[in-house]
Amino acid sequence: MRPGWAFLPALGGALVHAPVLRYDLLAALKLPLDGGATFGGRRLLGNNKTLRGALVMAGGTTAAAMVLTRQRWFRERLPGELREAPPALYGLLLGAGVVLGELPNSSVKRRLGIAPGGMRSSALGRAIAVYDQADFVPLSALMLRPLWRMTALEVVEACVVVAGAHAVVNVVGYAVGARSSPV
Known about the structure:
The protein is mainly alpha-helical. The protein has eight helices and two strands; from the N terminus they run αββααααααα.
């Protein structure tokens, strides 16, 4: 069992979210999660963190968990606790972690004046960009705690695996024109 496999359903959220963004689907739900609130003259989260995104990402992650856990090859790679858990509950907790886990990093970036999808060329900016690739993993580990208690080493391993996979997805997305930058 490798802990990174437990986060594979998060790709379902991204796969569902991509066409929603591309074709501006569910536009009525494109409401900023921060409601336009500011702190110190800067938006808390910005316009890119929306109710639509939260619902689509959480829903896509949940659906992917439900589909993937029916697949033997995937289920065998999960820790026993997640293998035995109700798939919908596993998906909902992971989906909530994916959505909520991105918010603190987005808020920090807004405080630093980094635009959504942007990056600073400083050491801090590069560190944030690297963390951004797996920012949802630590909170997702906490959300999954009722089902599976990850060790600190498992969280670190999952962060490395997710960051690596996310970086590859970003480069492919850039190559096919779905992203404006490969990072």
